[in-house]
Structures are given as structure tokens and as C-alpha cells.
Write a structure and sequence with these properties.
Length: about 350
């Protein structure tokens, strides 16, 4: 496999060379999206964000009402890159061992053996993550962060790629255990999935209103090729002015009084430094999917909402006024000059 050394003070020729490699390496992702669209109508933004999660090596929290093809999108992604997939239905009686696995005693051998849990898959759909108690949420989030699981005295590495896509229902809150802010922060992006347009829903009716469902997604990519794509993402050039732009956006989220006293009343606390890293990586992955070897300000603006919305906590005053973290992000993007 080709190895890529980080570029220091790249020239125009260097950036063009990496751009040529990116353009070629991004083609399979275009084919993957086309293959997934054989069974999924619309949801371009969700598919795009899942690809970014794969490329940037980060996990996604997906919020949307039931019936918007979230599960289908995740399973289709696993089929398209020929890798393992597990759907975990989170319930109040779930135990951490139900995810990670446990030690089982073999009476015939007189010893304990490791029985690995479903977390040992490349793509995990954690369905309704906020229905499980804190211990289970912590077990999953620890695996997400450390990318390893300890069972008994042994530690096992999780497969690579390892991508967790956790869903939660924004409407039904009875019997749920909301994720603490510190745990939500570990998700690289929070993607809000909306209803399809009228045209898309008409196409859904045309395709899916049958008793037999077509869920065939052609495999267009090997899981091993993700590693090479990630190395290319690391090489994508980001100018100092754009890096400063990212830092300014995150910094302003912590000091909203610079924009206005009214906005400051709506923000309890701003985004952590993890947001700076996530927004940079996501912008690079966005440039990769667009076939470019460099990041533009638009890459940053396109991903700002997904990266920041769950990292900016709003106050009770904001809730009373009907303001959300998305409104705060809009104000920040309007205020910070674009390089």
C-alpha cells in the first residue's frame, strides 16, 4: 500500500498532485452512493454524512422520527463496502455484557472462554440509544472512544473500520435516558434526518409499495480500501486562514456575548476543542468526496451544523423563545468573516 507523508509548506504542484489522487480515490464513493440509491430514495445528506464519518473515522448520532430509512441506510452502507453489520435495539433491560460479550464457563474443559458480543462488527446501528440505561450507554461510548473492549482480563481490539451510527427519536421521551453532554460530545456529528419531499415520497411509493422489498445493494468497495482513503484525507491541504476560521467559529460559540447580549442569554456553554478537530477532519473529508485536494470555506460551512449542534448547549430562555443550537450556529456563521 502506498504511504503518504504529511506535506509541509506544500506548493501548488503538491496540492494539484494530491488532488489528482483524491479525484481517483473518491470515485468508489460516488459508485457506492449510486448503488445505495437503488434501494434508498433521497436522504442524500444522511448518506453523505455517513461517508464523512467513515473517512474521518468518527461516529454519528442520527436524530429523526421512525420510518425515514435510517436502518436501511446503515445496512445498505455495510453491504456496499462488504463488511459486517449489527443492529442493536437498545431497551431499558439491556446489559453492558449484551453488547461487549462475557466469559462463559465450559464444564467439559473446566475453563472460562470468551464469548464476544455484537459490538465486534465494523458497522453498528445503535437503535434508540437513549432507551438504554447509563451503564449500557457508557459501555458503547467507551468502545467508540478506545476502539477496544475488555472482557475479563483480556482486551480485544475492535475491527477497522469501526463506525457507530446511533439513532434517537426526538419526539417520544417517555422511558428514555438522555445522553449526558459529555457522552454526546464523543459523536463526531449529529445528523438531523427530515421527512422526504413530495417528489421523493411519490418515488418511495412507486418503488416500495409491494409485499416483496428490493434491498439489494451491489458491493463496490472493500473495507480495506477505507484505510488508504483516510490517509489521503489526512493529506488534503487546509490553508492557515481556513484553520483560523474554524478556530474562530468554535471560540465564538464559547463567548456569544461578542455577537450580542441576547445571543449570550441563549447559550449555556459552547463547543469543546474536540469540535475544532472534528470540523477540520469533516471539512477535509468533504473535500475528498468532492474530488479536491484542498479545503474551502464552504466545506467548513456545510458541516458546521452537524459538528456543532450537539456541542452547543442552550439555556431554558432559549427553549422558551423557541431557539435551538442551530439558530446559534447561524448567528455565529453570519458574524465570523469568511476568509
Amino acid at each position: 500500500m502506498t504511504t503518504f507523508e504529511p506535506m509541509t509548506n506544500p506548493t501548488h504542484t503538491d496540492i494539484q498532485a494530491i488532488g489528482d489522487q483524491v479525484k481517483s480515490a473518491s470515485i468508489p464513493f460516488t459508485k457506492l452512493q449510486e448503488s445505495m440509491h437503488n434501494v434508498i430514495v433521497g436522504q442524500d445528506e444522511l448518506l453523505h454524512r455517513m461517508f464523512i464519518g467513515l473517512l474521518a473515522n468518527g461516529h454519528l448520532l442520527i436524530e429523526g422520527v421512525p420510518g425515514l430509512a435510517k436502518t436501511l441506510a446503515v445496512s445498505s452502507l455495510a453491504k456496499g463496502i462488504d463488511t459486517s453489520f449489527q443492529r442493536l435495539q437498545f431497551t431499558p433491560d439491556l446489559l453492558p455484557a449484551d453488547l461487549t460479550g462475557t466469559l462463559m464457563y465450559r464444564q467439559d474443559k473446566g475453563e472460562f472462554i470468551v464469548n464476544k458480543g455484537p459490538i465486534f462488527s465494523s458497522i453498528i446501528l445503535a437503535d434508540e440509544i437513549n432507551r438504554a440505561p447509563a451503564k449500557v450507554q457508557s459501555a458503547l461510548l467507551e468502545a467508540m472512544q478506545e476502539r477496544q473492549v475488555t472482557i475479563g482480563t483480556e482486551t480485544f481490539k475492535l475491527p477497522d473500520p469501526f463506525l457507530v451510527l446511533a439513532t434517537q427519536n426526538p419526539i417520544e421521551q417517555e422511558g428514555t435516558y438522555p445522553l449526558p453532554e459529555a457522552q454526546v460530545d464523543r459523536f463526531m456529528m449529529k445528523v438531523v434526518v427530515d421527512y422526504p419531499t413530495k417528489q421523493e415520497e411519490r418515488e418511495i411509493l412507486k418503488r416500495m409499495a409491494t409485499t416483496s422489498q428490493n434491498n439489494h445493494v451491489a458491493c463496490v468497495m472493500e473495507a480495506s480500501s477505507i484505510e488508504g482513503a483516510r490517509k489521503l484525507v489526512d493529506q488534503i491541504y487546509i490553508d492557515d486562514q481556513i484553520a483560523n476560521y474554524i478556530v474562530d467559529l468554535v471560540q465564538i460559540s464559547r463567548t456569544p456575548e461578542i455577537i450580542s447580549a441576547e445571543l449570550a442569554e441563549f447559550v449555556e456553554y459552547g463547543a469543546s476543542p474536540r469540535a475544532t478537530l472534528a470540523l477540520t477532519l469533516c471539512a477535509k473529508a468533504n473535500a475528498f468526496l468532492d474530488g479536491r485536494g484542498y479545503v474551502t470555506p464552504q466545506d467548513v460551512k456545510d458541516l458546521a451544523y452537524d459538528v456543532l449542534r450537539h456541542r452547543i448547549a442552550t439555556t431554558y430562555e432559549a427553549e422558551a423563545e423557541g431557539r435551538t443550537s442551530d439558530d446559534v450556529i447561524t448567528a455565529i456563521l453570519d458574524f465570523v468573516p469568511v476568509p
